[in-house]
Please model this.
Amino acid sequence: MDRRETIQATGRDGQLREAPQRNRLGNVYFAAKADPACMRSQPAIRRIYRLVEDIMLKNLSIRSFYSILGLAILVAFFLLGSGLHRLGVPIPGGVLGLMLFYLGMSCGLVKLRWVEETAGLMLRHMVLLFVPLTVGLMEMGALLSKQAVAITASLLVSLVAVLLTTGLLGKWLLPDLIEAGKANAGAGR
Model:
């Protein structure tokens, strides 16, 4: 992909001369824009600049590889879960895929570094992923208004169940921490 081009550069003496410009994947080396005589006298600067550019290109391609690999792994587990659901497993395909993904990570079949960047990207932009769901719910307004009481009751019951479960599990798993918190609260009065 390297190709040599020439540009006109002004030297220290003010005269125009042809200076080599090295172009790699659209990136122009700093050395091509500087005075060639100056760059020949400072080869270390040119080597450092090329080394930094090569490192940036390699890191970019490694990051791109892991992004594509992570996306492929996440989509594969989703499709695997959806396929098992279609075969008759009574768990939704997305949940089943997530369970299989967790099992794969627990067993060491899937490495964290393979999916970390893609999963982080998806989590950062999760709000955008809910837009189609929200638009779909808006189109079902008539059905939702007929079932509003049942939906509200199930939301309240599930909220109370989650709060009670979390509180009781915390009290059961962390009794020493709770007692220390009570002692510190009593000492602060």
Remarks:
- Residues 117 and 137 are 31 Å apart (CA to CA).
- The mean pLDDT is 75.
